[in-house]
């Protein structure tokens, strides 16, 4: 009897699940960047391993900088356009992968929804690599503290942080998995505030390489997404902006260029916390400019959709699949596969 039960269990594990999909290819590439030459720097004697005799290292020469790393998963039978996922400040493409609490993230959700998915690490982040500073990057990198993320990402009030998890004060009704906050902060990486031009160039190059597509952006990635659509409105078939922290100014950018690019702007809960009213106002002004030029913008505050308690990291919240379902529903209603 026991062996029969074991056999049944093995068959059940081997059988296809409701959300199964066939993958054709998993791969990666670097895109963008330029070659920079440095000269006049002092040579150094460096030991690379404990006990190793130092050797001379010459820092002068040519360097590839400003490149961006992209990982992709392509389906055997996609039913929708590819989805490009761009992360926020001080983070990497891990934002979209497995959530800090161990549940599947939006990379898997949109694969299951029928899209090829491209997840990138922006210039200077993750596997895109750094460059020397101050010779190439201006100044040193910035690092985010655990406390800053607690408040800035609207997980808890500013005075609610404590190194002891038992003493932390979170937002009432938060959907963020509080027990996974320390795990989440392991994703934090250094960032520079002087690389927007390089980063935008790399994102534009990515769009030109793999699109037509749908671009999904988060936080700092918002402004890059808005401008990528402006640069290639024929290739970006839709832009989904998840709590973008910046936007083009209508007096400096021609909103009519994206009149045929449907925009979705998604906002979580607790939006009265600083600095979010300022960030939200920038996108509201850009949305007004797009609509004034005859374009289509869907402004989606999640509480009005019946989804409450979402933090800034709403793709990691406990109800993140419900949020993703709202986005996919919008995509099906507003985007056609060319």
Automatic annotation (TrEMBL):
- In the record, which residues are listed under signal peptide? 1-19
Q: Which UniProt keywords apply?
A: Signal
Tell me the InterPro entries matching this sequence: AB_hydrolase_fold (IPR029058), Carboxylesterase_BioH (IPR050228)
Q: Which PANTHER family match?
A: HYDROLASE ALPHA/BETA FOLD FAMILY, PIMELOYL-[ACYL-CARRIER PROTEIN] METHYL ESTER ESTERASE
- Name the UniProt record assigns to this protein: Esterase
This protein's species is Acuticoccus sediminis
Q: Supply the source organism's classification.
A: Bacteria, Pseudomonadati, Pseudomonadota, Alphaproteobacteria, Hyphomicrobiales
């Amino acid at each position: 009897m026991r062996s029969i039960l074991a056999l049944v269990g093995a068959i059940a594990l081997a059988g296809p699940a409701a959300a199964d999909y066939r993958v054709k290819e998993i791969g990666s590439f670097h895109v963008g960047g330029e070659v920079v030459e440095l000269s006049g720097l002092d040579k150094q004697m460096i030991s690379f391993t404990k006990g190793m005799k130092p050797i001379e290292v010459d820092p002068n020469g040519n360097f590839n900088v400003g490149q961006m790393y992209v990982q992709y998963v392509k389906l055997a039978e996609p039913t929708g356009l590819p989805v490009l996922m761009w992360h926020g400040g001080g983070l990497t493409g891990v934002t979209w992968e497995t959530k800090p609490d161990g549940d599947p993230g939006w990379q898997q959700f949109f694969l299951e929804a029928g899209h090829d998915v491209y997840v990138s690490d922006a210039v200077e982040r993750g596997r895109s690599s750094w460059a020397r500073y101050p010779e190439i990057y201006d100044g040193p990198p910035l690092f985010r503290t655990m406390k800053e993320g607690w408040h800035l990402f609207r997980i808890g009030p500013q005075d609610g942080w404590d190194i002891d998890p038992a003493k932390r004060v979170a937002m009432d009704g938060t959907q963020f998995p509080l027990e996974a906050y320390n795990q989440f902060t392991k994703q934090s990486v250094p960032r520079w505030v002087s690389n927007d031009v390089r980063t935008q160039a790399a994102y534009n190059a990515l769009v030109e390489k793999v699109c037509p597509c749908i671009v999904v952006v988060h936080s700092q990635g918002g402004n890059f997404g808005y401008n990528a659509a402006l640069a290639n409105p024929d290739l970006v078939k839709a832009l989904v902006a998840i709590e973008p922290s910046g936007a083009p100014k209508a007096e400096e950018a021609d909103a009519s260029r994206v009149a045929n690019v449907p925009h979705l702007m998604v906002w979580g809960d607790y939006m009265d916390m600083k600095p979010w009213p300022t960030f939200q106002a920038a996108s509201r002004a850009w949305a007004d400019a797009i609509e004034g030029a005859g374009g289509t913008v869907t402004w989606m505050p999640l509480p009005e959709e019946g989804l409450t308690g979402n933090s800034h990291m709403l793709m990691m919240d406990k109800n993140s699949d419900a949020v993703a379902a709202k986005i996919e529903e919008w995509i099906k209603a507003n985007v056609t596969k060319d």
